[in-house]
Amino acid sequence: MSKPEFQRARSPEAKQMREAAILDAARALGAEHGIRQVTLTDIAARAGMHKSALLRYFETREEIFLRLTAAGWQEWTPALAARLGAITEPGPASVARAFAETLAERGMFCDLLAQAPLNLERNVSLDAVRDFKLATLAARECVFTALEEQLPRLGRDDALDLIATAVALAGAFWQIATPGPEVAALYRSDPRLAHAVIEVEPRLTRILTATITGMTPEPA
Amino acid sequence: MSKPEFQRARSPEAKQMREAAILDAARALGAEHGIRQVTLTDIAARAGMHKSALLRYFETREEIFLRLTAAGWQEWTPALAARLGAITEPGPASVARAFAETLAERGMFCDLLAQAPLNLERNVSLDAVRDFKLATLAARECVFTALEEQLPRLGRDDALDLIATAVALAGAFWQIATPGPEVAALYRSDPRLAHAVIEVEPRLTRILTATITGMTPEPA
């Protein structure tokens, strides 16, 4: 934080705009190439600034992608709550499908969900981790509310486990379902590897249907 | 592969011993520090050889850890099958506990399970990926057999989904449960972050119990 004063004397609005531009650049690159390929230098180039200038806004590439992960939670959870609210045939299968569809539609978010605990939370400040955890905690509230309406017999602890299961599986399955191009070709060419080719949405729907069914046994 | 002939003219036994020594060194370092911290240079130093010598046996650090992941599957699955075979009170909860206990006892394997699709499968040769996939596929067979005996109503597709769910959740939850020391201290210090502290085994037992219950409905 030893930058000369004239560089820091921006208006809060100008600072927010630069941050938003950096996040937009990282989002576009992540969607094009996958998170793992994107460097801080790439993001600075896409945002049209020098890397040294970018470092005044974010400390590491991990901080940028952790911010995008939090933004992903804030965008996904209301969409999921709306999908849950629109269910016409209540029950475990419909709820599972709402989770699976809304997650499978958000490939970069699935990528980020898997990367966050492994890679992103490990190279940022404690403040950044705290902000991230509190943001994702708050984002869950609208899902709890929607689940209470759809599945009145699902307790709060089960709802927490269900969300954790859905995001962990979506992250892991997305990684397995999107290997590099050479490995994808290998999977298609060798019938013994047919099991390695998975589709995120149907598998997630099947598993979450079973999990929710087991969490909400019919009253005896 | 332009090494001089005299270096490659080892007996197959000598080559296997060097490979085993390298894998042992990587396993010890991974258990001490977590996979993500361990470099090829660290492994060479622990195995008592130069990095250039190590590169005659393995192409990348990822290839070494992918081999350890396959070895982890080959060690875990018979242990799980034995635990399943020893169940005295059959049912979803006992089967779930066998999965959760045997996975939670194997921290480095959980770490590897999460790292494999994200990081390890992406920096190795196609042959290495093929060998890895075929090894983990074969390792599952003894679990299928044990599951058939414990849960006769669980179909093969559900058994495949169950194994995939257990390893994906174990990998993801292990990462969340073992943050760096500073982040762990933050979690303990801020009551708003209590939800961020999770225990792998009880959570995995709860979720898998529900999933298996939903996969094996009582006949009407």
TrEMBL record, chains A, B:
- One Pfam short name: TetR_N
Q: Which residues bind DNA?
A: 39-58
- The answer to whether UniProt assigns keyword Oxidoreductase to this entry is no
The record's keywords, sorted A to Z, are: DNA-binding
Ranges for domain HTH tetR-type: 16-76
Q: Which InterPro entries match?
A: Homeodomain-like_sf (IPR009057), HTH-type_TetR-like_transc_reg (IPR050109), HTH_TetR (IPR001647), TetR_C_34 (IPR041483)
Listed Gene3D superfamilies? Tetracycline Repressor, domain 2
UniProt cross-references to PANTHER family, sorted A to Z:
HTH-TYPE TRANSCRIPTIONAL REGULATOR RUTR, POSSIBLE TRANSCRIPTIONAL REGULATORY PROTEIN
Q: What is this protein called?
A: TetR family transcriptional regulator
Q: Which organism is it from?
A: Streptacidiphilus alkalitolerans
